[in-house]
Each structure stands twice: as C-alpha cells, then as structure tokens.
Design a protein that fits this description.
200 residues, alpha+beta, globular, disordered N terminus
C-alpha cells in the first residue's frame, strides 16, 4: 500500500508542475499582449502628434504673394462717397436778371437770347465754399478751359458768388487758383448776388 501511494504521488507531481507551467505561459502571454497593446497605443499617439504637427505646419505657412484671381485691377482709385452739393437750386442774378440753374453735376447760366454757359462740376467743397468745373464745349470764349467758383451761402439760401477764373488750363490749375474771399475782391468778374428763385 505504501508503495502504491508513492507511485500515485509521483504521478500527480508532473500534473501540478504542468499546471504551473501553463499558468506561467498564460501570464507571459498576457504580459506580451499587454506590451503589444501599449506599443500599439504609443504608435497611435505618435501618429496623432505627427498629424497635429503637420496641421500646425500648414497653419503657419506664410501667405502667398501671388495675386489673387478674385481681384481685378481697374487702374482707377476707389470712389469716395461725398455729401451732396449744398447749393443745388434755381437762382436769379440780381445784377442782370440772368438765371443760374445749379444741380449736383452741372452749373448752367442763362443770359437770355440764346447765350448759355454750362459748367460740368468735377469737384466741390461745401465747408470751404468752392466748386471746380469743366467748361462745356459749347461755351463761348471758354471752350476747353476750367473754372473755379468761390461762394458763400447765407441762412436764407441766397448766394454770393465769384467765378475766380474761367480760363484754367486743367483741373489742377483751377483747384490751385487763388481763392476769392468776400470783402477782399474777386479775381474774376466780381462778386455776384444770386437769389434763390423761391425767395423772390
């Protein structure tokens, strides 16, 4: 009986060792899988960092100096919005009864008997009281020239006007022409009083 017991015990030992070896292999496999998972996670994180770095590099790229197709250069400066001309109206000149019809773009003087002078308004300044105009091609004695009008507007809407010049060669000359000031003379035809037609 004792020998039989020893034999059975000897048979059981390899089985326990076999279980132990299996457990060891299992743990080793789990560790290896864990390491592989960690390496995979590290690799994915590294990929994310590289993607973020690439995006940042793209964001920090210098802007292109090439001209855009969306922009069309017309060769002209942009138009600046200006307040309306303040002396628009129909006036009668006190001196000779001639009529002055002033619009946003045209100053027309009708002396009667078909004698009409027309001035195309190109620039003006309400605060300083001046107008630069191009003489109409049909104006007697003033064809191809430019005019400067200096004026003062009173509270009743009536005008005191001096055509400081009607013989400037171009717009810049008319613009730089010495301005006329009431009480200090008029370099043109003298100061004229224009009464707003509705005030007559």
């Amino acid at each position: 009986m004792f020998y039989l017991f020893m034999i059975l015990s000897a048979c059981d030992q390899p089985t326990e060792e076999s279980h132990s070896e299996k457990d060891t292999v299992k743990e080793s496999t789990q560790i290896d899988q864990s390491n592989e998972n960690e390496e995979t996670a590290d690799y994915e994180n590294t990929g994310d960092i590289e993607d973020e770095t690439t995006e940042n590099d793209n964001t920090n790229e210098e802007p292109s100096t090439e001209p855009s197709d969306d922009f069309t250069d017309t060769g002209s400066p942009p138009e600046i919005e200006q307040e309306p001309l303040e002396i628009i109206g129909y006036y009668v000149q006190d001196y000779d009864g001639s009529y002055h019809n002033i619009t946003q773009n045209v100053w027309e003087i009708n002396f009667g008997a078909g004698e009409i002078y027309t001035y195309q308004i190109r620039q003006y300044n309400n605060q300083q009281g001046w107008i630069i105009a191009e003489n109409d091609a049909n104006d007697p004695l003033e064809t191809g020239k430019w005019s400067r009008f200096d004026y003062r507007l009173n509270r009743a809407g009536n005008l005191t006007v001096c055509q400081s010049t009607s013989q400037a060669d171009d717009m810049m000359e008319a613009l730089n022409w010495p301005p006329s000031i009431p009480g200090q003379g008029c370099t043109g035809w003298g100061w004229l009083t224009l009464t707003l037609f509705e005030n007559i």
